[in-house]
Amino acid sequence: MQAAMDAARIAPQHGDVPIGCVVLDPTGTPLASACNERELTGDPTAHAEVLALRRAADKLGSWRLEGCTLVVTLEPCTMCAGAIVLSRVERLVFGAFDDKAGAVSSLWDVVRDPRLNHRVDVVAGIRAEESAQLLRDFFAGHR
After folding, report:
1. Which of 5, 25, 115, 132 is the most exposed place for a label (fewest CB within 10 A)?
2. How far apart are CA 81 and CA 69, in angstroms?
3. Cα separation of 109 and 120, whole Å?
């Protein structure tokens, strides 16, 4: 989670919400990391999870991230949860819950929906308060 937190701290430097993500290979070695880049790139899909998944797939040379773990500071939204399922990530670890857009526990449970062809193991609430504080500090400066 520390690597995801470190990535999250980069995002405000370019005006983005401080969410960070890292993808680990099956041995726990980092494959890729990212922070939100929507403001930086003007891309509405440039969430930390999507960018980290793309970079990890590029590094592996395959879109199948079987056995990999995705660690992110905030509960993924529906787009990111769908991308996690489609990439065949084995485990998702996240920090803060997202009561407004969370698609893993808070509003929906996309990654464990039995109707889908892949389900993801979830570890929730890791360093949740620190992750939430990053967001509170960011938004306090924008109000």
Report:
1. 115
2. 13
3. 10
Catalytic, out of 37, 39, 49, 130? 49
**Residue 49 is a catalytic residue:** yes
Distance CA 55, CA 22 (A): 10
Dump pLDDT digits (tens) for 101-133.
999 999 999 999 999 999 999 999 999 999 999
Q: Is pLDDT of 31 > 90?
A: yes
Tell me what the pLDDT averaged over the chain comes to.
97
pTM: 0.96
Contact (Cβ atoms closer than 8 angstroms) between residue 135 and residue 74: yes
Q: Kindly state the tokens that stand for 114.
A: 């039995």
Distance from the Cα of residue 89 to its chain's centroid: 12
